[in-house]
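A protein record pairs a chain with a discrete description of its three-dimensional fold. The shape at a given residue is found from the number at the same position. Here is what such a record looks like in full:
>
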Amino acid sequence: MSVRRGTTLLEVLVTLLIIGVLAALGVDLFSHYRAESLQGAARMLEQDVEWARSATLANPDDPASILLLEDGTGWMVVRQSAPNTPVTASDGTSMRRVLGEGMAACAAGTRISLPAGSTRSLEFEAYGGVRTSPNNLEMILPDSGETCLIIFDLGTGQMQVQWPNPEG
């Protein structure tokens, strides 16, 4: 009696088919994860904008602002009295948000892009109105092409998020 060794062509093809199906599912799941990281970054910015507005109303003598980092990797919530120092949140953490680190770890790879000549800060007046604001900014996932456009109402500072991609 002889012992059969090796695999048949059919066994190899079935194995490749299974690997191909699993890879396709993995790519689809990964693309949804990337879109969620962009959504998370937009939500985090929106929460910080609302926090800054509320902090300004609570302490009108020292208004809060959102200062976008020059390298496009995040932002800081600052006070007028210390415009280069991030505010400390009630839980003791710094309100400097670097996308891909700390609280913003889920937004790794996301970048912020402003139109040429735009201001890098959203500054509130003492009673909640807006002193200065970029008209809009874009959050981008460069490696996937996912984007969202964030538009600021110049009167109120309210944020509107537009998702040009179908998955957004």
In short: The chain has one helix and ten strands. Residues 1 and 7 are 18 Å apart (CA to CA). The beta strands are 64-68, 74-79, 82-86, 96-98, 111-113, 121-124, 130-132, 136-141, 146-152, 159-162.
